[in-house]
Amino acid sequence: MKQFLFVALAAVTIWNVSAGFNGSGMGGSTLAAEFIGVAPQAGLIVQKGENDFDTTYSRARAAIEKLNGVRIVNEIDHQKNAEGRGLAMRPARLILFANPNVGTPLMVASPAAAVDLPLRMAVYEEKDGTVALAYVDPAFLASRHALPADLEQINMLKRGLGSIAAAAVEK
Question: In 3D, which of 158, 122, 156, 166 has the Cα closest to residue 140?
């Protein structure tokens, strides 16, 4: 029995290392995502554009600022943070933003929705130089927190996030 447990533990350890275990309970690689049956970008909407990184980011930020009742809560420059630790990475920034009139009813309906709020939108450069913008699909958010998909706030998120993304990636 001890040998079996040792072999099982070794197999799990090898799988975690080879799959890029990141300490969050899931592997960090496509292989790990496929193993558990989840697409690597499940629940995300990713839009690619033809503009450079700075243009896409600036347009996304400006579109957020134009929305009524929405305020930018924080911005995280992952590339700058990596460089501060002597690490290199392509440009990647995250914008966190909120509208209490939209988010509060979601958290009242499902308090655990707080884990996904404030909303976030990532702008990043892929390996091939393409700039992409990604955000959580509001339908996924509704499903994840057992919220009605036809809830007005979910529809508001779909329209708002879609308009931000469209403004950011348009040529």
Answer: 158
